[in-house]
Every structure is written in C-alpha cells, then in structure tokens.
Target: NADH dehydrogenase subunit G
Amino acid sequence: MEEIKPQLIKITFDGIEVEVEPGTTIMQAARKIAEADESQGYLVPPAMCYYKPLPTSGGKCRACLVRVAAGSAKDPRPMPKLVPSCITQVQEGMIVENTTNDAVLDTRKSIVEFLLINHPLDCPVCDQAGECHLQDFSFEHGSAKTRYEEERRTFEKIDIGPFVQLHMTRCILCYRCVYTADQITNKRVHGVMNRGDASEISTYIEKAIDNDFSGNVIDVCPVGALTDKTYRFKSRVWFSKPVDAHCDCEKCSGKVTLWYRGDEVIRVTARKNIWGEVNEFICNTCRFERKKTSDWTIEGPTKVKRSSVISANKYRKDLIAKPDFALKLAATQFKPIDDEREYTTDIETVRHQSIENNDKANHRSLLPQNNN
Ligand code: SF4
Ligand code: FES
Model:
C-alpha cells in the first residue's frame, strides 16, 4: 500500500522558508534549516532546558524565546508575547523572528542575567568549564554587566551514589536530570522540590541513582551541577582528546566517547550530537568501569561540532578558527561597552598585576573547599 505522507507546513524563520511536518516545533524547524546548511547554525535559538531525546523537556529556561510576527496564514496577527520556540508548534504561514528581532536579542541578554542570578561564577574551578552550555550561552548572548546585588544561594555538595556528585549551587533547574531519571526508572523517584527561590532537585534524584544508567544525568546536565566523581579535577576538557569507541555491551549500545590524557582514558561519556544532546544512553559499567584502551574498539577522533575549546589544538585546524558569533558579537559590542575604569598602560605594572592575579587564581583553585 502506498504510504501517505503528511502534508508539509511552510513557515518563514528569520526570512528563510522551510517545510516541516505538522506537530514540529519552531526550534525543530530552525534546526532543520541548520542541518541542511551548516552556515545557518547561528539562526537556531539556544536551548538550556530543551533536550530532544528527553520527551516533554523544554519550556523551563526561556533561553529559546522568539517572536512570532504572524501566527499563521489564516490568522496572520502577531503573537502578543515572545514564545518559547522549543514547545511552540508551527502553523502554516507562520513567520518567526529570532536573530532578526532586537527585542528577542535583548530579552535573551536578560535571560542570561536571570540564569546567572544564582549560578556561581566559578568557571576556573568547575569541571564543566569548556563544555558548559551556560558558559557558551552567556558568552554568545549575555551582557557584560549584572544588576544583581544579593548573595547567590549556596548548597553543600551531595554525593549521590559512588560515582556522581551533585552541587546544587550550580543547578539552573532545567529539569533535564529529572526527565533522565524518569526514563531510567519505573516509578517516580525524582523531581524538583519546593517552589521559586527554594526549588531544588536533591533527595529525589538520589533515589534514582541506584540504577545501571544513572551516570547519564551527568551528560545531560548543561552546567557543572552533576559531575563524574571518577573524573573530577583530573584535567581540563581542552587538555583531553576525545575519541569515538565501542564495545560489545550487554546492557547498552556500547557506543561511547573516550577522553584521553596522553595514553590514559580519564573519562568515558555517551556520544553527543551536533546539538550537544545524547541520543543513546550508556550504562554505568561502560562509563565508570571500562577505563582501559583494551576494553574498547577505537573508531577514530570524535568530530566536535559545537564551537568549543574542546576542538582547539586537536585534530581539525578549521575548528580552531574564531566562530562567526564571536566576530559578530565583537563587531556589535566593541564600541558600546560601557567601561570607565582607569587602565594603566605601564607595561611593568601590567605584568606585575597579571602575575599577582594568576597567583591568586592558582591559590583559590588549590583550596580544599574547591577540590572536594
Ligand atoms: S542538576 Fe543539572 S540537569 Fe539537573 S536540573 Fe540542575 S542544571 Fe538541570
Ligand atoms: S530551551 Fe526552550 S524554554 Fe528552555
């Protein structure tokens, strides 16, 4: 019997027409444009909570807000407010503005500021640095200033099982780990407790840790709130070389990325797609116990798609080039930067200050509270 294909819906996203299946979200339509033409990748709205492989994720962080300038061909009125592109479905004739709309770009700056209200600026001592989506989001879309003066909330670090550590202080409440726990457990043993400023994941997630696939919460966490205890403080991600490898595993697909420092496998993670999402979860045996090269069949260097320091000094020189967004940001932000501090131009003073600052940073990174 002939397969009946659903009628496609045509929308315009930042001036580009794209046809997608009914039920597609605006975010997925934008990703379709970028998947067809890599140079359009900058059009895709950022996502801090949406994670395609985790059904029902999205709608929490507002990083992906866009303007719908025309709702549909039937009702071409604009939507009154910006809408989250990750959970808003397309309509025939919809016109969406993202990078072409100043209000969207301006709002995105505020969203970065909002997410950083409670997130500590401890990137120099955070294991996620270099592969942190919040770091990328703030670099690509944030502003140089914050208006927040209150103290950030802090939590004690919690060991959840032998392999995973939760540092709630860094959590942005994206719910990704919650949805991951939902997938790997049969009963509801997890969730976000309390409301507003008092919200936290915590004990619910601890109960999900007694599971062969619990390590996947580390990979889905966009920040350094959930980290791998077998890898913490072993290296910076830009010093390690990622390699795709597989093994014959009875519990999972066995397809992983091995992270080498010299000849040593210092970390095993699931593989991520071009959007930084894990398509196939891996089991804890592959992640935490197979740390010898002889455990694996090596396929070759991992192709790192995200513009990231992970790709610097590795296999592909073209990935070291400054990504487009950095040049665009520099072009738009260089002049308006409002910085009236006095600068010294005396080279000896500059050198001295720089040595002093490095010493302070080194001292901070060696403090016991930053190393357990
Ligand atoms: S711990 Fe990480 S994955 Fe879980 S809600 Fe917080 S930021 Fe999201
Ligand atoms: S990515 Fe859409 S709301 Fe978070």
